[in-house]
Amino acid sequence: MAKILKIYPDNPQENLINEVIKTLNNGGLIIYPSDTIYALGCNIFDIKAMEKLAQLKKIKLEKAKFSIICNNLSHLSDFTRPIDTSIFRFLKSHLPGPYTFILEANKNLPLAYKGHKTIGIRVPDHPIPQLIVEKLGHPIASTSIKDDDEIIEYSTDPELIAEKYDHLVDIVIDSGYGDNVASTIVDLTSGEPEVIRQGKGII
């Protein structure tokens, strides 16, 4: 059964965040809030956790395009090729925020991302994922939670999410109702911003 942790963005309890970190370090899957929608996450350096995340999404890990959640831009050089000053300024002006930026990947990607030419980077404007990444010491892998409803594309109620994923994840962070608009995906690999999916963020 998934453990439900009520963690509020205005005052995240350190002991509960530490419990999340312990779960991630032990290969567990979490559901967490962001500045857009609720998402599934795990430790990017734990290949078994990444495989579980892929199974949950019913895709092969090598075909998965899981975003990398950072708490700031300091991790960029760990995963991406050197970027132009103009692109870096563009990123700084939009992050943290409701965007996923596609950048060229370098050869130092975690094992689960090996062979990927590009990588999606997210820096959510939300204290809980930022704190999780900060305390963990490195980014987490992430993928959005889709709803079965044809009208409402994304699940917003953490209690219903917890019910649905009860035996599939280890922790559900209940931070109140989430949004139902995903991040805007912007491809920066050509050097010019190209919107791939229009979401919450405006470019």
Automatic annotation (TrEMBL):
<dbReference type="InterPro" id="IPR017945">
    <property type="entry name" value="DHBP_synth_RibB-like_a/b_dom"/>
</dbReference>
<dbReference type="InterPro" id="IPR052532">
    <property type="entry name" value="SUA5_domain"/>
</dbReference>
<feature type="domain" description="YrdC-like">
    <location>
        <begin position="14"/>
        <end position="201"/>
    </location>
</feature>
<dbReference type="Pfam" id="PF01300">
    <property type="entry name" value="Sua5_yciO_yrdC"/>
</dbReference>
<protein>
    <submittedName>
        <fullName>L-threonylcarbamoyladenylate synthase</fullName>
        <ecNumber>2.7.7.87</ecNumber>
    </submittedName>
</protein>
<keyword id="KW-0548">Nucleotidyltransferase</keyword>
<keyword id="KW-0808">Transferase</keyword>
<dbReference type="InterPro" id="IPR006070">
    <property type="entry name" value="Sua5-like_dom"/>
</dbReference>
<dbReference type="GO" id="GO:0061710">
    <property type="term" value="F:L-threonylcarbamoyladenylate synthase"/>
</dbReference>
